[in-house]
Amino acid sequence: MTNAPFDGLRILDLTSGPAGGLASMILADFGASVSRVIDPEYNCLNEVPSAKMWLRGKSVTDWSFNLVRDADVVVISHPNSHQCCDYEACAAVNPTLVYCEITAMGPDIPMPLYEGLVAAKAGRMEQLSVILPESGPCFSAVQVATHCTAMNIVSGILAALHKRRLLGVGEKISTSLLQGLMPFDMGHSIALQLNAQFPRKPRSGNRSSRRPMMPTLNYQPVQCADGKWLQLGNLLPHLFENFMKAIGLADSLAESHDNLETVRDRILTTMQSKTCAEWMEIFIADGGIAAHPYLLPEETLNDPDMTNNGHIIELSGIRQLGPLANLTVTPARISESGKSGAGWKVSAQPPNQKAPLADITVIELATVIASPMAASFLADMGARVIKVEAIGGDPFRGMYGYGSDRCNLGKESICVDLKTTQGQSVVRKLIAGADILIHNFRPGVPERLGIDYAQLRDDHPGLVYVSANGYGPAGPGAKRPSTHPIPGAAMGGAGYQAGGAPEELLEIPELRETSRRLFAANEVNPDPNTAVVVCASALLGLTAREQTGKGQQIFVDMFGANSYANFDAMVDYKGKPERPGLGPALKGPDPLYRLYEASDGWIFLGIKRPREWDEFCSITGNHALDRGDSASLTDALSNFFAGRTAAEWEDTFRGTAIGCVVADEYTTAEFFFQQCNDSSPWMMSVPHPKLDPFYRHRPLVNFAGSILPEGAPESAGGHARELMRELGYPDEEVDSYFSDGILWQES
């Protein structure tokens, strides 16, 4: 037996660009043999600085169809030059093959596999218009769709391999950058369904005047005495109280509701009395305050919570991201060169439409977004997910509308008082029948509740035990609280998205506006970014168990997960080009990859390949444009695109190699709301107690040979009695547990 989960697994990588590149890198990190075929037509996508990282661990080979015969997995991105390598041809010679294809917005919408195009078309850039509300949509700087798509590829492949191992069947799976954006619509499209008469907003050049909002005091960005900025993340009331006491404003707590803006100004002024380092020393000593400095990527690469938790490694002078997760029994073995593999041989069996994870049970002991959402992704692939909630339910159920519905699809729920011996006994019995456990408690809490890995492993050696928290177990932040704005600031993504923050000390009006802009840029994406990593990491552990016979504890944290979401900046080497700015209006990093104003709104132009530029010049007659002069080219294209409407420009380039899409038609929620119909490939109807019908997103990965469950949300504790009977508790004892407050159910 070996301790490398994927030793021998043969993967044929026919992708170009970071989505497939990151996915196959992760599998190579854990032992897979990855053979990469260079596609000359699209190889320019592999020449960006971060490719020095995500091309690691792979061997380059010449194309031959015989590679398909020997492969366990083929990953292919569309469009490409390997059109002869379709699934039917591959399955004909290798019927147990797991074949994964990646597109921008599905096979029926031909579009280059560029995040900017999908982000613009699906409303993400319009959603970010709140950063600079008077100047139209803003370029989406953090490549969250690419990150999530890479994780979806990993999860989909591992789920399909699990089914293949059990049932001897191959599978065609597919995903897209648009599906990679689905996790970032957290309940907002559901909320739009509440109003059956929701009016479609007319497109206009002034549509960007969405109302800018100041941050909540819990999430306030603040400037310190040395000009550096801190992000607060004190979501829960007791954390905010800790913060106010630590900065000497405990007396202002009572005013924080009636005199909100007065208290905000006091906080902003008080925080300028000490340096960033002085405040962080106070907050770390307290242990109950969520705060972290806004960092640049080069600072993030040296942050002790990153380095101490193994998130940063160096190969041949290149500092880069380490393994996706810390598998304590079967750790990653990262190398520059590729590995050899004999293949995971299985005997082909007749087709079987069972969901890939139909035999897997997951216990979720988690709250709010990241880990609960991860468990819902496992449920979408067929796993039975039992959500164990505290008495009164997951606090997220009472926050922010319908976000909890998005995080709790397809689960069974039981609310248990884990502070009682009876409640702990119930949960341990549930765990005894589980394959995977996911929790997001801070260190020390599982031990107090009797559910830490050390107490469970002797009775359940095959358990895949996933610990997901904010900072990871090994750095100075190990026991500190964290919420989504913290990694957003710490990974450099929020500062980049906002266009930076001034370090000269600001007066109150400028402080308020800069903090508002930083808050608008530091959106909720770190939670979904973490969720897809937790899901993929759980399946890494499941695959390791199948190969080695061993369960294990796995550590995932928001810092590591969000460093992967900022993968393009998480590479440093001598001579590395400087990360391009987005311009003062945040329109994009390059004249050929940015937003332009049309006569009635905005378009996004996405050109990366030389062929695309040549075709653009041919269609438009702009042969005199100088691609080497960025400023002049931007001015020329600005004047050019102002001559027609956004819809006319999209129509002009439809069916060509050039990506050009309307960028301000919808927000992301509005885009998916428009897909709420029974023929949509992206949304599907499921039961809901308040909406009829309620449309939820379809799964993040499509499995052509499997029937997936159509999971709906459930009320807190809604399955308690059924689960207790399943565990062997008589009805009379269950009744007494309810009356004694050991169990609880939402009425």
Strand content range: 5-15%
Unreliable spans are 197-209
Form type: globular
Overall pLDDT metric: 92
Biggest sheet strand order reads: 12-18-17-16-13-14-15-26
Helix share bin: 25-40%
Q: Tally the helices: what do you get?
A: 30
Tell me what you see in this structure:
The model is unreliable at 197-209 (pLDDT under 50). Strand 7 and strand 8 form a beta hairpin. The protein has 30 helices and 26 strands. The protein has 747 residues and is of the alpha/beta class.
Describe the protein's topology.
Blueprint: E1 10-14, H1 18-29, E2 33-36, H2 51-54, E3 58-60, H3 66-70, E4 73-77, H4 87-93, E5 98-103, H5 115-121, H6 124-127, H7 144-167, E6 171-176, H8 177-181, H9 188-192, E7 221-223, E8 229-232, H10 237-246, H11 260-271, H12 276-286, E9 291-293, H13 297-300, H14 304-307, E10 312-315, E11 318-321, E12 326-327, E13 361-365, H15 370-380, E14 384-389, H16 403-407, E15 411-416, H17 421-432, E16 436-439, H18 445-449, H19 453-456, E17 464-469, H20 485-490, H21 493-498, H22 508-521, H23 526-548, E18 552-557, H24 558-565, E19 571-572, E20 593-597, E21 602-606, H25 610-620, H26 630-641, H27 646-653, E22 659-662, H28 668-673, E23 683-686, E24 694-697, E25 702-703, H29 720-726, H30 731-739, E26 743-744
Parallel strand pairs: 1-2, 1-4, 2-3, 4-5, 5-6, 13-14, 13-16, 14-15, 16-17, 17-18
Antiparallel strand pairs: 6-25, 7-8, 8-9, 10-11, 11-19, 12-18, 15-26, 20-21, 21-22, 23-24
